[in-house]
Specification:
156 residues; mainly alpha; two-stranded antiparallel sheet
Amino acid sequence: MSTEQMIDQEQAISKPLPVKYAGFWMRFWAYIVDLIIVFSINGLLIAPYRILTDGATYEIGFWTVAAIIHTIIIYGYFVLLTKYFSQTIGKRIFGLKVIREDGLPLTWSDLLFREVVGRFLHRVLGITNALYLVVAFDDEKRGVHDMIGDTRVIHE
């Protein structure tokens, strides 16, 4: 192999493949599917808890046990599925995938910032849910949580 062929081959390998960023509506519908799944899982797990406690609410500080269970399930769903599959079930249905900005595999810190810190910011106040609209106006279709986690959502 000549030197020119080797250089061409190295350049072809180093060029990133073109990606198509997922827009607001595709991400919105995938998120709705994910919420339906998470709320179904919560219903299946919290209903027996409420039966066992006769509907009583037990508080730990200013949190209830049911709210803690719900929080663990919702964040666990998004963090674990995105870490191990780079997509949640909703994203899989719509052919979307989460990637790092630099193309390397997702790390735990990427996901903790994206899924926990970023989504927490969306839920702090009711009005902060409007931050999801940033996806519609950003060139790379990033949400605030993508910016925090240095991630992108693309079409597979």
